[in-house]
Design a protein that fits this description.
By secondary structure, the protein is α+β, with helices and mostly antiparallel strands. The protein is built from 14 helices and twelve strands.
Amino acid sequence: MKILPQNSEFSNFFSKLDIKLSKPQTNHLNCFVEGIINCDKRKNVSNIWEHSLNSKDRSSFNKFLLYSPWSKDKMNRKRIDFAAKELVKASSDEPIFLSIDDTLSVKRTQSKSIEGLKFNHSHTSGKREWSHCQVSLHGFSNGLSLPLDFKTYLGEECCEQQSRNFKSKGELALDMLEGFNFQKLHKSYLLMDSWYSSSDVINEAQSLGFQVISGLKSNRIFYPGGIRHKLSDFAKELKEDDLSVVTANGRKHYVYRHEGHIKGIENAVILISWIDEFDEDKKPFYLICTDTSLDNKEILEYYKNRWEIETSFRYQKDRLGLDQYEMRSLKGIERFWELIYLVYNYLELKRFLSEVKENLGKTIDKIRAMRTKELISYVFEMAKNGVELAELLKNLRVLA
């Protein structure tokens, strides 16, 4: 018995991806979307099922994630290709920005039976955490912000058990970039923090057609005036008269600019920048930009778009439960992540195309409010038709 009609907007969105699923698989997918959006508790499979009133059987819902014969990789590729087209459509004459970063799903150290867990360094806590590590690629242009792709960073032993080739985070990032071609026709920038700014990643990204703006670690070597310097040592010798003042993103930046050779990279712009004020005792931050035609203000403002991926991680975890799964199988976990990305893409496109541009949280709240109205209408109709309270509570999965 169907309690509520399935979300026609999501069904239309999913049909555009042209993924071939059976009728039961499509129903489970729709139920997952309904459950993940409306679940106001921890988003494990049981709670998602509970908030998806059209899914009849909990075990079949669980099997859809773990055993049903659908391809996560095919769904991922179709979704990415569709998202890339939407970014190009939204961009108009604006650049397209891709951001690379990673995020951890931290688990209890007692969770030894979950596949793929290892100790990974957390930028948040500053220590190693027992976790899954997801390397992610995010797209942004002209107000549209879409998570695109992800790869699971695994230890060598787990890779061997899973029959996968071990790859570094940088190699995983490059694997994701190779799936795009819009950068050959549209001005496109890859944004990274200093953890991904190896010469190999920057040079390979350029060969694929991307310009790169990235943070740099303070120990990188460059050659101002043809003399070898470490960035941090050179910065200590700078005086305020050596800097230009730029207002970018609403804040003052005191900037030293160098264009030339940096170790491993033939030619790029290096920015050494202090925010708000120049202070010799305060450490600056360092940026590299391969597009030498950009001025300092443009580089700083473009780089701010990297924070779109941080916002995306927050929504995925806080509102969609990216790290709240309770499964042992790495296959099931990666399928769960893929469905979270699918839901996020649907929600973001709905937000972006709406007349009132609100944040993603407001979009989720509106969908929940509409569902509440539909549930009240359902209860009213059942009461009019003489349905017993016990049966109504059972249909709504409410304990009597």
